[in-house]
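Last lecture ended with a question: if I hand you only a sequence, what can you say about the shape of the protein? Today we answer it with a concrete record. The protein is Serine/threonine-protein kinase PknH. Below, first the input exactly as provided, then the predicted structure, then a couple of comments.
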Amino acid sequence: MNSRKLRFLPTKATFKLGERLGSGTVGVVYRATSPEIAKPVAVKLLNPAVSGDETITDRFEREIVVMERLSHPHIVRNYGGGQMDGQLFYAMQLLEHGSLKDRLKRGPLEWPQAAAYGVQIASALQHAHNHGIVHRDLKPSNLFFDGLGNLVLGDFGIARDMHAQADITQQGMTVGTFLYMSPEQITADHQIDGKADLYSLGCVLYEMLTGQPPFQGANFAQVWEQHLHRDPPSVRVAQREAGVRITCPEWLDELVQKLLAKRAYDRPFNARSVEGVLLQQLIDAFGVEKSKQLTRLDALQVVPGERAKARFWVLWLVLALVAAALGAFVVNSR
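The predicted structure:
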């Protein structure tokens, strides 16, 4: 590994590993500190058992290169990579407040909350797409809460770099998570672009609103068949069947259906257009002082001292669905 020529400029920061946070077949993640960085970080270290596999090391290094190009408040922050004791590593933002998947175990979200999260996710996707990066694995378990209850997109391990001469996967290979995969990912279309992420966003919005992904089955083959050939039930129908008390508005149901279009060209033009629709509808429904709290209402962890306030705003939002407030809505859509 020491003789391997790196594709990136190693960070000058040094890191001291602490608690082991998790592990997989490819890497191990540690809580770490650095004298050059004010806050603790997460360090992902390539597993020594697979460091001799050129394909795996190429993917790991490609992820570092991808993360170097991205800087967005709703994408996990990158602090650079390098080698530690002969093993590849990279440092990233430490997110210790759970994932959207964890939150959805408690049930679906009210539609204003789901729409606000949708704004954040779409903004992150557009930033990635602007830099030639297609995530290809957007799902609730890859969306993490920060300390303020905002969503942060992580895990770019199978992202496609549109600027690279070759993909990290072999031609004809299917990559992604089957519950959230676009039809073109399932068929391993070589023309996959940002529209695939929009389909996955539709799946995530659907799950936020109903508590379940749009398609389910006993195995991946059954789910893939539905992604390819069947239309999902409307969100409002699925909500009624699930006993959700306050259903989403028709415009949001229609947006989710457009995102879940089988053909890529039938989906919205880009993530920015999705962000715009969601944002405009929230502008029409909520005032600035109330709406800006949307992303903090239902996070897995509430900032100390804010829990009682959060419960108050949840009650306010339910009432606001009957008598919508007037005003302007401000969301950071960088």
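Comments.
1. Strands lie at 16-23, 27-34, 37-46, 78-84, 87-93, 133-134, 143-145, 151-153, 160-161.
2. Residues 100-320 form a domain with the Transferase(Phosphotransferase); domain 1 fold (CATH 1.10.510.10).
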